[in-house]
Design goal:
elongated, binds flavin-adenine dinucleotide
């Protein structure tokens, strides 16, 4: 869509999925994060089958393809930040199999182009750190269902959708 904006966030992360032998994250079944200031963050997300996805924030510039990840330096820093998670950190460092993720903030001037409607991340992608993207997508679906039920005129329904969604 013309005037769509999707600037890269200055921060992204590395990811690794590891087994949770001690059920330290999978038993409470909750996302856990630990921060030091605003520049160091590690997260642990239970993803089923006794596995945990570990993520570690890094500046996007450090995540360029081809730039090496210093796993040993990461291991030492992660152990200092969150020593209780040593088992997961050591496993991730040993496997050394990190994926890289960068994120964009997506904004559109309007959410439909004629009969084509953008919802979810396609309309308003946010940082996963906010933990709200799926919720926003579900709200879009709920509003869309309501405006379609309220009118037989597709153009009017989509205009109404845009008004509700952009004005809250
Ligand atoms: C690491 C991470 C953590 C997150 N944590 C949270 C959280 O805690 N809470 C929360 O609310 N949200 C979270 N989110 C955000 C959430 O996952 C997204 O906002 C949500 O999945 C968006 O849903 P969607 O249906 O709009 O898009 P998607 O889930 O991306 O679905 C789009 C689908 O379209 C398919 N597709 C793409 N191109 C084509 C094509 N050309 N043809 C056919 N199919 C295609 C894709 O394969 C995909 O299945 C997180 C995201 C990430 C990456």
């Amino acid at each position: 869509m013309p005037q769509a904006r999707a600037p890269l966030y200055p921060w992204g992360c590395i990811w690794a999925t590891v087994p949770d032998m001690g059920k330290i994250v999978t038993a409470p079944a909750m996302l856990q994060q630990r921060f030091r200031g605003s520049k160091t963050m590690m997260g642990l997300l239970p993803v089923g089958q006794n596995m945990v996805t570990l993520f570690w924030s890094l500046p996007s510039a450090a995540l360029e393809p081809g730039l090496p990840i210093d796993v040993e330096a990461w291991r030492a820093e992660a152990l200092t930040l969150w020593p209780e998670m040593a088992g997961l950190i050591e496993h991730a460092a040993w496997a050394g199999n990190f994926a890289r993720a960068t994120y964009r903030q997506v904004t559109l001037p309007r959410w439909n182009d004629g009969p084509v409607l953008f919802i979810g991340d396609a309309a308003h992608g946010t940082s996963p750190q906010l933990g709200q993207g799926a919720n926003l997508g579900l709200l879009d679906a709920q509003v869309l269902s309501a405006v379609l039920a309220a009118s037989d005129d597709l153009a009017a329904a989509l205009a109404l959708f845009g008004r509700y969604s952009l004005e809250g």
